[in-house]
Amino acid sequence: MNENLFSSWAAWRRRTASRLVHRGSRWVRQAGAVTRERPGPYRFGAIGVGTRLAFPQGTVFGEPWIHLGDHCVIGEQVTLTAGMMPGLDLGPDPVLRLGNGVVLGRGSHVIASRTVEFGDDVFCGPYVYVTSDNHSYDDPEQPIGRQWPRSAPVSIGSGSWLGAGAVILPGARLGRNVVVAAGAIVRGEVPDHAVVAGAPARIIRRWAPDAGWQPPLRTPPPKPIPAGMTAEQLMALAELEPDDGPVREQEGERQRPEQVPGPRVADG
After folding, report:
1. Who contacts 41 (Cβ-Cβ below 8 Å, separation ≥6)?
2. Average pLDDT of the chain?
């Protein structure tokens, strides 16, 4: 009897401690987030309405030359730097600029000593790396890390998507609505409405007004969610498996009960 009481008391203590730790963790994340109204220790050149940098932040310096647009979402441990090192005077113009609605996934790095610009509504998965600087190795006698890097501006067009782990190298110029596959390494120019993959990245699919996507997409576009659908209906829809419904025999034919098609992901 005493053993059961002791076991119940220990379990209650563990549950209570767990709740308190998670509650405290949520409070810390909320209090440590950076917004326009609560900039914390940072003094960005501009930070737009609705923009939020999740806590904990990564390395951030050169904030006066970093301009963040409206409604940006910047995940945990994201590094944003302007200049080679803290404390430099980089002149009157911004060096790193994010447009409106930019999303930077957890652990991403944006390193800018030359101009790096994101257009509006650029979405990045986790651990994306964008840099205007690359190491040089011209002098075989000097350690590579001590040699002056090669630098070139970078621009990423509005509406683009950068997959997890993508690397954007100095001098890259991405057009509008470009898809960069996960793990791709991009350099040079990428035209509008292109899909690139590989290391180094190459174009694997493009959209043309007269021919559409070439090569054609292998799956149909996802169906939009009907207007007015409730959260409960969406949850029920997600549980449906179109290929697993019961099959019934009727007049010698195999038929499935009609099902509502769920959203499907189109080819990238």
Report:
1. none
2. 87
